[in-house]
Amino acid sequence: MEAKKYIEVAKFTKPQGLKGELRASLYCDSPEVLEKFQDRLFIGKEKKPIEITLRNVRKGFVVVKIFGIDDINNAEVFVGESLYIDRNDYILPENTWFIADLIGLKVVDVDSGVEYGVIQEILQNAPKDVYVIKTKSGRTLMFPSIPEVLIDTDINAGVIKIRPSVIEGLFDV
Question: Which terminal residue of the chain, N or C, has fewer Cβ atoms less than 10 Å from its own Cβ?
Answer without folding.
Answer: C
